[in-house]
Design a protein that fits this description.
The protein contains 11 helices and 10 strands. By secondary structure, it is α/β, with parallel strands linked by helices. An 8-stranded mixed sheet has the order 5-4-6-3-7-8-9-10, sandwiched between helices. α2 runs antiparallel to α3 (62-78), α5 (125-138) packs parallel to α6 (155-166) and α7 (179-192) runs parallel beside α8. The structure holds guanosine-5'-triphosphate and magnesium ion (MG). Magnesium ion binds next to α5.
């Protein structure tokens, strides 16, 4: 079993701690801009504007910002001395409702299952493919990596480097070749080798380029044709530092290939992270993992509790 927060054990624990640190960083980057809004201070009307600006800066999306502000204003009418801690609690309640079904829970049921990673250039697809493969191998699964980025010269080399370091089984592709044909070959190999999981790394593509999205559609058709009735997952890898633009990407990719999940990367950087709320709210897609570094262990199952604890929780150190 993988995904969600059900995994236990020391490895999972350290991953969760790491996840916590990443989001705390996000929180610091965003909430500190409003001068420690959720700390010490009592709410005044100008601070309410600060709160609004902070929530916008965190890329939660307009509807969510309005919802949090309305809830805070309502509480403020009842208690003119509304404490920052209380504001955090209110924000938590609103976000918790929005994210109620956001935790992706994934268990391989029909091997070989296929996880196809898609997204714009540089989002973190190849790194996520390798990290996910390593993670699944550690959990005893037979994993094959399919390199379907036939576009970028260094793509195959990049995945080969991961393969050499971590003994990953890889099906390589030809530069300039047909990505759908590469996916077909990889799936055939996964079936022949009795794999539990095939992870497909695809070329980065702008969500505004129709022909590139058509290529992805073709790739999906070919996979379904090769293994009718199989379990195919289509996860969008989203760069957590890109903010509200991520929602537009997610919408277009979803329209093209009906995404089944999200992986949010680079939460360890100065990322804003809140776009995850906007994407989930708009498309209802589960979030399976967050990338919190460039190392092999830096892929953490998404946990709503951790996310909110680190963003708003009482133990947070964002006011220092
Ligand atoms: N800090 C950090 N860096 C990451 C993370 N995920 C990926 N990166 C880095 O982001 C850069 C791009 O990652 P790739 O995995 O090559 O991205 P990609 O989506 O495959 O890129 P293209 O194939 O060019 O579209 C690399 O330098 C990665 O090491 C993450 O979670 N945290
Ligand atoms: Mg790549």
């Amino acid at each position: 079993m993988d995904g969600g927060h059900a995994t236990v054990g020391p490895v999972a624990f350290s991953l969760l701690k790491k996840f916590g640190r990443s989001v705390a960083h996000t929180a610091r980057a965003t909430f500190s801009r409003a001068g420690g809004l959720f700390c010490r201070h009592r709410l005044t009307l100008d601070r309410l504007e600060d709160l609004e600006a902070t929530l916008h800066a965190a890329d939660f999306g307009r509807e969510t910002v309005v919802q949090v502000l309305e809830a805070v204003q309502q509480a403020h009418r009842a208690d003119r001395q509304l404490h920052s801690q209380k504001i955090a609690e209110i924000a938590r309640r609103v976000l918790l409702k929005i994210l109620a079904n956001a935790e992706g829970s994934w268990k391989i049921e029909k091997p070989p299952e296929v996880v196809c990673l898609v997204g714009i250039n540089g989002a973190g697809k190849t790194t996520t493919a390798a990290k996910l493969a390593i993670r699944q191998l550690q959990q005893g699964k037979a994993v094959l990596l399919g390199s379907c980025d036939t576009f970028r010269a260094a793509a195959d080399e990049q995945i080969s480097r991961w393969g050499e370091r971590f003994h990953l089984d890889i099906i390589h592709s030809q530069r300039g070749g047909d990505a759908a044909a590469a996916a077909f070959d990889a799936l055939s190999a996964a079936v022949a080798r009795g794999k539990d999981l095939l992870i497909l790394d695809t070329a980065g593509r702008l969500h505004t380029k129709i022909n590139l999205l058509d290529e992805l559609k073709k790739l999906q058709r070919v996979l379904h044709g090769r293994m009718p009735g199989g379990n195919f997952h289509r996860w969008l890898v989203v760069d957590g530092s890109l903010g509200s633009n991520s929602l537009e990407q997610a919408k277009t990719f979803h329209e093209a290939i009906q995404l089944t999940g999200i992986v949010l990367t680079k939460l360890d950087g100065s990322s804003r992270g809140g776009a995850l709320v906007a994407i989930h709210r708009t498309l209802g897609l589960p979030i399976y993992f967050v990338g919190c570094g460039e190392g092999p262990d830096d892929l953490c199952p998404f946990s709503v509790k951790n996310y909110l604890d680190d963003l708003l929780g009482p133990e947070t150190d964002i006011c220092d």
